[in-house]
Every structure is written in structure tokens, then in C-alpha cells.
């Protein structure tokens, strides 16, 4: 399972990368705004700074919602770095753009996926990744993990190569549940990744080991 971090914060990306388990980064316009990155030039340079920090794919989202605009922005974004994956929203012109990009060998991440039907369309259009939003479905009392299972089933039945990128991951149980199902990738905050390593028995066990060592070696 690939681990992507869902942030535009360079410090968090560095920390996740230093842990040695980071496979890529996803961003979105809200995450860029949260870091105070505004204006096209600043946004493009920030994507470059992210690409320079990591070894894997970096999803950069288009703002345009019409076919020509999405294609224009996507073609500009891929010029930044070979790691860039063009993030395209699940809208009618977005599906057309996914098909266009796929024909040109340009990698894409279809975002804002909330149903299996949307994921099926994105796969048919040749998306490299689909991003079903697990946490946002849970937020409205709908089972986000069940959607991951449904999409994986459909993709396996037809052999689609589109990778399921479980997005809007909020906590470690989301990661475990996605891993059990075989999601290709998860993207979440650093806090969810770091929460995987925590257990009170690990902490108390280590405390005792160190205390016993100290007793025998003082
Ligand atoms: O980047 C897309 C997705 O991961 C957003 O997550 O936490 O804003 O629902 P969240």
C-alpha cells in the first residue's frame, strides 16, 4: 500500500519523508490556501518545492472547470516536474479531459469521487488514480470504507488499472480498513500516519526496558 501525505505544508512533508515511508503527496486548492500560497507563480513554485522534497507522485489540482481550461492547466502543471500528476475534478468536462490526458500519456488523479459510478467513469476515461473521499462520506453518515470496497470490486471484475487512492483519510483505523481491502494508496494527514506507530503497551514496555537497563548498568 502506498502512503501519500495530504498537505501542502513543507515541514510536514519533510517529516513524513524523513520517516522513510512516504510514497507521494496530494494537495488541493484548500490545502494550498491553508499554507497562504496564492497567485499562479507562487502556486507553481510551491509545487516545485514539494516535488524537490519527495521521490513519488505529487498531485496538483486544476482550477478550470471547462475542458480547454483543464487541458491547458494540466499541460502547464506537468511542465513543473515529472512527478506531477494532474488532479481533475469529477465533472463532465473533467471526464473528457481524463480521456484526453490518458491518450497523451499524462497521469491523472480524478478527485471528489463519492460514488462507484463516478469511479467507473473515471476508470473508463483512463484515470491513473481515483480519489474517493472516505472521511467526507463518514461525515454525512455514509460508509466511506464501503465505497472503497465497492470500487475495488468493480475494478477487479473488469481488470481496470486505475489505482484506488483512498482520500480524506482522517485517522489510523481508516488506513487499516483501506489496507485490509487492498486499496492501492491512502492519502491522509501526518497525524494519521504517526498514529499508526502508537500503542500504550509499546510506550510502557519501552519505559520498563530502559528502567531495567539503567538498574543493571548504573
Ligand atoms: O485532498 C483530498 C482529500 O483528501 C480531502 O480530505 O480531510 O479535506 O476531507 P478532507
TrEMBL record:
Q: In which pathway does it act?
A: Carbohydrate degradation; pentose phosphate pathway; D-glyceraldehyde 3-phosphate and beta-D-fructose 6-phosphate from D-ribose 5-phosphate and D-xylulose 5-phosphate (non-oxidative stage): step 2/3
Which reaction is the catalytic activity of this chain? Answer: D-sedoheptulose 7-phosphate + D-glyceraldehyde 3-phosphate = D-erythrose 4-phosphate + beta-D-fructose 6-phosphate
Compartments annotated for it: namely: Cytoplasm
Q: Which GO terms describe its molecular function?
A: aldehyde-lyase activity; transaldolase activity
- Provide the E.C. number(s) assigned to this enzyme: 2.2.1.2
Q: Which NCBIfam families match?
A: fsa_talC_mipB
What protein does this entry describe? Probable transaldolase
Query: Which species does this protein come from?
Result: Rhabdobacter roseus
Amino acid at each position: 500500500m502506498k502512503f501519500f501525505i495530504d498537505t501542502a505544508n513543507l515541514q510536514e512533508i519533510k517529516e513524513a519523508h524523513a520517516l522513510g515511508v512516504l510514497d507521494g503527496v496530494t494537495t488541493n486548492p484548500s490545502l494550498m490556501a491553508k499554507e497562504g500560497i496564492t497567485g499562479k507563480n507562487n502556486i507553481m513554485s510551491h509545487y516545485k518545492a514539494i516535488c524537490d522534497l519527495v521521490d513519488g507522485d505529487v498531485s496538483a489540482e486544476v482550477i478550470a472547470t471547462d475542458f480547454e481550461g483543464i487541458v491547458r492547466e494540466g499541460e502547464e502543471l506537468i511542465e513543473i516536474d515529472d512527478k506531477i500528476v494532474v488532479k481533475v475534478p469529477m465533472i463532465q468536462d473533467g471526464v473528457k479531459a481524463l480521456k484526453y490526458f490518458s491518450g497523451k500519456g499524462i497521469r491523472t488523479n480524478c478527485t471528489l469521487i463519492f460514488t462507484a459510478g463516478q469511479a467507473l467513469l473515471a476508470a473508463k476515461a483512463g484515470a491513473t488514480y481515483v480519489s474517493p473521499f472516505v472521511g467526507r462520506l463518514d461525515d454525512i453518515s455514509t460508509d466511506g470504507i464501503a465505497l472503497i470496497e465497492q470500487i475495488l470490486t468493480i475494478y477487479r471484475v473488469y481488470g481496470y488499472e486505475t489505482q484506488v487512492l483512498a482520500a480524506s483519510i482522517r485517522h489510523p483505523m481508516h488506513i487499516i480498513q483501506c489496507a485490509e481491502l487492498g486499496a492501492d494508496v491512502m492519502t491522509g494527514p501526518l497525524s494519521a500516519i504517526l498514529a499508526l506507530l502508537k500503542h500504550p503497551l509499546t510506550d510502557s514496555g519501552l519505559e520498563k526496558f530502559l528502567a531495567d537497563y539503567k538498574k543493571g548498568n548504573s
